[in-house]
Specification:
There is one protein chain. The protein is α+β, with helices and mostly antiparallel strands. Helices cover about 30% and strands about 25% of the residues. It has one domain. The chain is built from six helices and ten strands; from the N terminus they run E-H-H-E-H-E-E-H-E-E-E-H-E-H-E-E. An eight-stranded antiparallel sheet has the order 1-2-10-9-8-5-7-6, sandwiched between helices. Strands 3-4 form a two-stranded antiparallel ribbon.
Length: about 210
């Protein structure tokens, strides 16, 4: 992986986070209230030396140089080629877990837009339901790999949100909770990440 650095995104990053949270689900609506109601900073993790202008092209891929080199591609018998897309999901998972470990009693909630809770398909051990919407709940007992795995499974190209919150979330025996319980936890969010750069990276907001 290319040498990475934290880069501030300012108002452009804030606008992206707000748009990403707008009118999606209970978690995102509650997180929007946190972002709108508290001072914060926005930033990303990116290869060293990329221009500030490029970093504000949040919907465009090609952030990672690995994805621009077709030498990594596998060539198929029909003449076409396939190439696995490199991303910063492992780094994002480790970053989220680091903040959980540094904040006493904190947990991480990740929304999962694709499955429905009643289907009980494609769910992870960390999954829980609020109505039909699926989320993932991770804590200090989960590993970096489990954090990254939950991000990877939950991200859609157009949407993916994770939040580190100070308050604990209690689930019932069926691993569900009420919208109000999730809203109370989301109101304590300290860090929010949103997928960006066509899934290659993320934009983060941190309460200051």
């Amino acid at each position: 992986m290319t040498d990475l650095e934290i880069r501030a995104l300012g108002d452009a990053g804030l606008a992206y986070v707000q748009a990403h949270l707008d009118n999606v689900n209970v978690l995102c609506t509650a997180l929007m209230r946190v972002v709108d109601g508290h001072r914060g900073e926005t930033f990303t993790l990116a290869p060293r030396g990329i221009s500030s202008t490029r970093l504000t092209q949040f919907d465009a891929g090609g952030l990672l140089l690995e994805n621009l080199h077709m030498s990594r591609a596998t060539h198929l018998p029909d003449g076409s080629a396939m190439m696995a897309v490199a991303s910063l999901i492992d780094e994002q998972g480790a970053f989220l877990r680091k903040h959980v470990l540094e904040t006493q009693g904190a947990i991480c909630v990740i929304d999962d837009f694709n499955p429905r809770w009643s289907d009980q398909k494609h769910l992870l051990p960390t999954s829980f339901g609020v109505g039909e919407v699926v989320y993932n709940l991770l804590a200090t007992t989960n590993s970096d790999d489990e954090f990254a795995g939950a991000v990877r499974c939950s991200n859609a190209i157009w949407h993916g949100v994770a939040a580190v919150c100070r308050a604990p979330l209690t689930l019932d025996a069926s691993r569900t909770c009420t919208p109000a319980a999730l809203e109370r936890v989301a109101a304590t969010a300290e860090l929010i990440t949103c997928t960006a750069y066509d899934g290659e990276g993320f934009v983060a907001w941190r309460r200051t």
